[in-house]
Amino acid sequence: MPLNTASVVIGLSYASLLFLVAVGLSVVFGLMRFVNLATGSLYLIGGYLAWTIAGELGSFWLALLGGALGALAVGVVIERGFLERLHRNELLQVCLTLGVAYVVQDVTRWIWGGDPLRLRPPESLRGSILLLGSIVPTYRVALIVAGVVLAGLVWYLLERTKWGAYVRAGVDDLEMLECLGINGRRVFAIVFALGALLCGLGGALGTPVTGVAPGADIQILLMALIVVVLGGLGSVSGAVVASVVVGLVDSMVRTYWPEASFFAVWVLAALVLAVRPQGLLGRVTA
Amino acid sequence: MLELHEVYGGYGDGLVLNGLSLSVGEGQVVALLGRNGAGKTTTMRAVFGLLPRLAGRITLRGESLRGLAPYAVAARGVALVPQGRRIFPSLTVTENLLIGVRPPRGEQRVRWTLEEIYRLFPILRERGNLRGTLLSGGEQQMLTIARSLLTQPLVLLCDEPSEGLAPVMVQRVAEILHRLKEAGLSILLAEQNLDLALSVADVAYILEEGRVIWQGTAEELLADTHVQATYLGLRVEASEGA
Q1: What is the distance of C-alpha A188 from the center of its chain?
Q2: For residues A74 and A71, what is the distance between their CA atoms, to the nearest angstrom?
Q3: Does the domain spanning A5-275 belong to CATH 1.10.3470?
Q4: The pLDDT value given to residue A284
Q5: pLDDT at residue B240 tops 50
Q6: What was the ipTM of the complex prediction?
Q7: Which of B48, B90, B148 sits opposite A168 (nearest CB)?
Q8: Other CB atoms closer than 10 Å to residue A281's CB: what's the count?
Q9: Which CATH architecture does the domain made up of B2-241 adopt?
Q10: Nearest-by-Cβ selection for A172 from B80, B89, B102
Q11: Number of A:B CB contacts under 8 A?
Q12: Angle formed at CA A19 by CA A37 and CA A15, multiple of 5 degrees
């Protein structure tokens, strides 16, 4: 399949957004064996808040900050208010986050309406630049840079700090971690909150390219779930690789056969899982 | 130090512990013996509150451990060297150690600093950057013991530390247990290897079906081949030859 720079840039910028949403989902699953189905809602909240803040205050950067912090706040409410009470009851946690997803969908539609809202990128990132002989949108390139920087930060936090070692140990064997004197629920609460922050940031960053509208939550959730499953549950490097693969496949197929893009991503997921049920970089669990 | 009184507990419908009582004195090494499935591992899980069903009294220096989360039990001074070692596979040897590191308690005879640990287990410094699970079985056993020591325990629960190790490594485990005893640690030691257990233990309990069916000093058990044969299923010649 011929590659062109523009569709690679579009694919990689989408991969940045996917990573931001998927990494929290993946680590939360790895720690507590439950899927946070409100992940897409946090993305949606980040996008809507960013749109409103940009409109009110006129600053794109404050909008990013506000979107991320807003999602963080909602994430903390979900975790402290509800999930904490359902500790170790994964099925109810899944049901509960699905319920939250429905509530958020209706409340956001009530506040922001049903039409897609689009945020303008900041002055400095508007327009296009010439990259490898192709004209590509500047904001897309900036998204890729942001994705790389944030993935690097997450990697550093998880792989090079003591706190990150607690998280990885918890993904490996939460019970053993607790027997060594670490409060697993506190580790989980912090991971959940940081995951929510990244989701909100993803929503805010994505609004200039995809817009924000009802349904964006479900769409990003489905794609992020594919990323998590493809990359391997609980694996950060897996989330990076799978985001890039899914982002590129989506944008390539979209270029040549737009109707089939969603289909192609699922086929890819099915093929990978047939060969490696644990995902690309996942470990086989005992 | 650690007391279990009339403890009942299990996972599903059936009980694994059926009124188990035992006590680990200050600085004492207590061997917990019995066939597979007698309840040795379950006893240790009960202390950490890891059983879905649990009744009875479990106290550390008179204070109840019942109802505490595992991390709170650890914070009060109980450490687990689990069966199967349970090294964190995603972590390096050094990171596995760092998970355990806590500030020392005032009353300890030996403060388990990283320096002290590396003096006792030099291999763990040499292999520091390796993934923990790439170590040999014996080295992994050193790592899991070192990791629990760094939590500055008053009582160490050691679950089959010699399991699956070569004889030379079993010898090394015995040396370490002696060293920990000298350091004043109280140890509850579940073992299938009777020679190892009795070489270090002061007192022994034999479990069957989740309750204590024999208790006495290590010397008494060593001398009583009848008990050994009946309850532990040991061939008498084997223990006489040892």
Answers
A1: 17
A2: 5
A3: yes
A4: 57
A5: no
A6: 0.91
A7: B90
A8: 17
A9: 3-Layer(aba) Sandwich (3.40)
A10: B89
A11: 63
A12: 120
Residue A271: CB partners within 8 Å, gap ≥ 6? none
Domain parsing of chain B, residue ranges: 2-241
Instruction: Please name the amino acid found at residue A193.
Output: A
Q: What is the pLDDT of residues A97-133, one digit of tens each?
A: 999 999 999 999 999 999 999 998 998 898 888 888 7
A162 contact residues in B (CB cutoff 8 A): 98
Q: Which residues of A touch B80 (CB under 8 A)?
A: 179
Mean pLDDT of chain A: 90
From the list A165, A173, A283, the residue facing B95 with the nearest CB is: A165
Nearest-CA distance from B225 to chain A in Å?
Answer: 37
Tokens 């009583």 locate to: B224
Q: Which residues contact A171 (CB under 8 A, 6 or more apart)?
A: A27, A30, A31, A234, B90
Residues of B in Cβ contact (< 8 Å) with A31: none
Using only the alpha carbons of chain B, give its radius of gyration: 17
Residue ranges of chain B whose CB lies within 8 Å of a chain A CB: 48, 50, 69-71, 73-75, 79-80, 82, 86, 88-91, 95-96, 98-100, 102, 147-148, 151
CB B207 within 8 A of CB B20: yes
